[in-house]
Amino acid sequence: MRISGVDGVPGGWVVCVLFGTGRAREVTWTVVPDAASVLAATAGCDAVGVDIPLSVPAGAQRREAELLASARLGRSRSSLFPTPPAPVLDAGSYDEACAAAQAVTGKKISLQTWHIVGRIREFQQVRLPSSVVEAHPELTFRTMAPSCAFASKKTARGAGQRVAALSEWVPSAAALGDLPTAARLDDVLDALACAWTAERVARGTAELLGPGTDALGRSTAIAV
After folding, report:
1. How far apart are CA 96 and CA 202, in angstroms?
2. Which Pfam families does the record match to this protein (predicted)?
3. How many CB atoms lie within 10 A of CB 163?
4. 51 within 8 A of 194, measured Cβ to Cβ
């Protein structure tokens, strides 16, 4: 089995590709500049989990997948930014994005959401194979280790908790022994979490929150 997890890093995306099954896995890491490069780096994978919205709402309503994921995240729901409506993707500045969002939803978008608009746009502009699914690392970690009260991923405690959870799936020494210098620790842990979800998708055991398709025929679901 060949699976992959993808998370954003400054200036691009960190991609982990895992070969094999069980704890005898091989893990390779790369940092690539854009969505097209992500697809090239993950070509041939049985499933790819990406931490970015792969579908966008056409109107004012939030995606069903986000509402379901938010409910599961509880007090950690702030880690899930609302996906902006489609017209926002055409904005060239934060002010333009806020105006576009307000025209559709009656509300401006946050600055944090604006910072991922370009990343969402990248994946809207490429043709996605059916093996690529949307994943959300914080939701994945809580599914992976439901009894753990995860601290912030930016803290040493939170990072340690996530390494411990992942170590039940893939040996941390093998997974984290040769990381790219352009990636931060929280980003690579999130990418591994997306790969965990990708394996569940490949095996047919993943849960799809908000299943359906958008106007482009893309899945609206978040896999977990």
Report:
1. 40
2. DUF429
3. 15
4. yes
